Structure formats: C-alpha cells, structure tokens
Structure prediction request, 615 residues.
Amino acid sequence: MSMKWLTSAQISADGSQILYTVDESNAATDQLAETIWVISTTGGSTIKVAEVKPPASTPPAFSPDGKQIAFASGQENNEQIWLVNVGGEPVKITSGAQGVQSFAWSPNGATIAFVMVGPVKTQQPGAHSPPQSEAPQLFLVDVKTREVRQLTNANLPPRKFSWSPDSEQIAFTAEDDIYTVAIANGQTTQLVSRPGQDVNPSWSPDGGQIVFFTNYGQTNGPRGLSVVSASGGKPHDIYQSFDPGFGNYPPWFCRWSADGKVIYSSGLSRMTQHLYALEPKTASVKQVTSGRMVYHDFSFSRDGSTMAFLASDALNPDEVYVSPTTSFKPVKLTTTNNQLVGVSLGLPEAVRWKSKDGLQIEGLLLKPFGYVAGRRYPLLVLMEGTFGTFDFSFTGRVSADDTRGYSFPFQQQILAGRGYLVLMPNPRGSWGYGLDFGKRALGDFGIGPYNDIMGGVDALIDKGIADPERVGIMGIYVDAYRAIFATTQTNRFKAQVVGMPLFNLVSWYGQIGPEATYADRYFGGAPWQVPLNYEKISPVNFAGNIKTPTLLISIEQPEFPPVMQARELLTALKKNNVPMEYVVYKPSGIIVGPKSQADLLRRTNAWFDQWLKSK
Prediction:
C-alpha cells in the first residue's frame, strides 16, 4: 500500500519542464491523495506544486507560457479550477454549486474553457435529447479578471473538446457528434453528424482541419480516426478500423505534429503499447517508440522536437521520461518507488497455445517465487474480460485501465510471491491483436473465449508445471464475467474471487441503459431482438452448475448495475449451497478505496490459500 502511482505527465510548450501527478494511498484513512510535481526536462530535483485531496478527475495543465499551472481540486466541496505559480500558493478561480468536469487553456493563455453543468436556454436544432433545465455546458473563465461566462446554452452536453490555434473557436463532442462553437458569440455549428461515434476532436496547427475518433458511420463498429475540414464537409476516414498492424484498440490519444504533416497516436501491439506517426497523405505508419514497454500519456513541446510520457515494464512502475520526437532516445527523469529496490519480483513471460478451434492465443505467465522445474504448482487465472488486454506494464493493465480503476494492481506479483503460478490470458476479442481477432468475440462472446482460457490451463498442466487439482480464477466486473461463466461450464476451478460480475445479461442490459451501445455490438442487439444470443452466453442460464467456492465482492451502491448483478449471483450461490463469503465495501472512486483494497487483497490471498494450498 506504500506504492505511488504516476497518473499524468505534460511537457511545457517551450520543452523545458514536465508537470506530472502522483497518487498515494493511505490505507488507514481509506483516502487517495494526488500530488502535483514539476521537473526539468534535463533532470535534477523535483518541485512540489500542490496537493489534491481527493485526486481530480482531470489532470493539471501548464499555461501556454509555462508560468502558471491550472489544476482541478475538490478540497472545498466540489472540483473547481485553481491557479498556481511554481513555488507559490494556489488561488481558486472558479466557484459554484456544480463541479468542473474538465478544462483546457486557450492557446493565447488568456482564458480557460471548462465543462460544468449549467442552464439550458435554448434547444439546439438537431439535438438528440429533449429539452431540460440543466445539462453540461462549456464555460470560459478569464485568467486575469476571474470573470466566468457560459459559452454554450443548448442541450448538447460537451465532453472532450479542443481549442482552435487562434483561440477563437472550440471543437467539442456532444451526443457522439462533432460541433464547433465561436468564442465571440457562442454560435454553435454541427460539423460531423453520422451514425455511430464521432468523438474527441483535435485541431490541426494551421486551424484548417480537425482529427477525431470515429467508427466510420457504423453504429457499433470498431473505432479509428477521421479528419474533417474545420469549415465543414465530408470527413476523410484515415486508417480504417485503426488497424495498421495493431488494430481492435480504441485509440485514447492523438495529436498533430507541429508542422501538421503527421498525426501521432498510441496503440497496442500485442502486449506492448507504442506511439505511432500516421501520415494521412501517404497512408504510411511509423512506430516511434521501441522496446518491450507500455508507453502512454504523451505530450509534445510547441515546436514538436521533444516529447514527454509515462512508461513502465513488467518490473518497473510508471515513471516520467523525455525523448527527442524524431529520434527515440528515452531518458528517465523520476524514480518514485525506492521501496522496490531489493524486492524480488517475477518476470512475466509470453506464452502461446492453441484454443479448441485451433486459434492461437497469447498471454502472460508469472512463475512463483523460488520456482523449481519439475514441480507442479497451484495455478491462478487472472481475467481481463474483453475490453482490454494484459500487457507488459507493471500493473499488467495500463493499456486497458488506469491504476485508480483496477482493483487488483500488481496482484500477479503478490500471488507469485505466495507460491502460485499466475496465468493472464488474452482470449479472442482482446485488444492489440488485429481487427479479425477482435471481431471473433462479437458472435462468440461466451464459449469461444472460455475455450481460449481453458486451452491455456490445459497447456500448463500438460507441461507438468500446474497442478490440475489446484486451479483458481478471479476477476472484477466485466473481467469477472469470464470467471463466473467458466465456473458454470466446468468444476475444474476449486476457488474463485469475483467482484460484481455480469451474471444475468438480460437484466444487465436494462440496468446499463441505452447509451451502452457496446452491448448491442457484442451481443448482436437487444435481448428481445436476439434472445438466443443472450441465452447461450448469460451465466444465469447455467447457474445450477456452479459448485466452485466463491468469494463475492460488492459495494454499498444499491442502484449501480454491477451491484444488482452481484445480488443475483448471491442468490444462485445460496440456492446451490456453494461455500462462499460475501463482502460489501463502501464505494470510493470507481470501485473501492485504499483501505478496502488492502482488505480485498488480504481476503483474496486467504481465500485461495484456504482452497488451493490445503489440497
């Protein structure tokens, strides 16, 4: 619990400094605190800028001149924007009953735009939602005068947004379409409107184009990149399905190069994550970063010559790095977790096997500390579900999650240290293995991935290193679906730990609401449209088969869909007289806070020790 987690990094426009944030847990108080730091790109000592309790939902940002830092903090009721000079005292520049959801500096540094709930004054023509009294809106705050002005006033809740280079417009996402709004008068224009998702716009340096993430007009298609003229017109789809060798990964990041000739975007390549340079005119792709690393959170100096980023590998947590952009020569600037020095950690190795239908599956295997060849060990299968991939980062999940949202960070190292083999499979549908591999989960969400997982278990047993009588499985939420589905199909697992799994997919569909279109994509439609699709993959339909001793995790949030799903599983476990424990935590962040997480780790260890080590 003394681990510290770097959560963001940003280089200043002149390339001289890097702003980064660190999360730190306090298990005694069940609180997570965020600290903002600055370090020179040449290295040296770090400067503490501010503390944020609890951590903000949006990262801090340098002003364009690098002299000020804006950050969000909820230390006074809800999240508001604060300004601080390095070495100075923070000053709050926004206030109100509603909290700031995200913010960004204007390129000229005079204004900060932010998203906050505000009144709806008019109904925007073509809006998909009915009129309502309040909705998220774009606001502007003058950095000098602190004057706040509401910029948008329609029922178009903005999410990701981007300033034009001349600071005169903002492009934003609303209702999965792209809009622009004029700073002078608030005039809003719909720029892109088509089925599916068109989101996260980013303006080109010359102000002439906007790149955005899209699924190319397909209601439930995979997401890639498109470019549209800032004055409107038909979007130009580039890198269809975002599959230039590393597909089926929804890109979270893209930025233009300083000269506007290249679009930088990160993407998974099997179990590593790299930065790529995409050239729209030549349709070429160049990998910028290298090595068996997971790189993320990129930012670039104004001239594009220098970039900062976070990176980790299987033995080292994220740290801040800097490198020239055109010639990748990474230099590590921070060392955040000195307590790991001298701690013996296992090095995960890539393993491959054939599934029942002959499909090659890949995953990570971590052998127990003190591993002796020829001896069989208890095996634990960690699950990643379908929305992600196990990777070579320290947590094993940077490519799919941030640390705050994953309840089992580096659990694989803890379990290996306790004498377990740990298998982390990437079944069909996992990101980073190409579009065709990803599509295999669309019509085969249950049995296919189950066979992929069991193929890995069988391969380790056949090699003589896993004990077939001591196999366990674990996962949280979507990840837990894989675990609970497996235990409805086989009794080979002697113990499982599951947190709020998808158990009854029909009721879950109704609980998550119509916005969750990924359910339609993976299952082929709504339950009443394709009932057989749900029948064959919903664990509730096979609940009578569950015999595996289960540690079931939930939280005190009754109307949260995963909690409702946990209740349904609890009923099935009780009806089956399955040996079980049911543990309910107070919610904190996405799932649980540090104190609860520590308790969960201890309970997980004890549960598997009870059922797998005593055999």
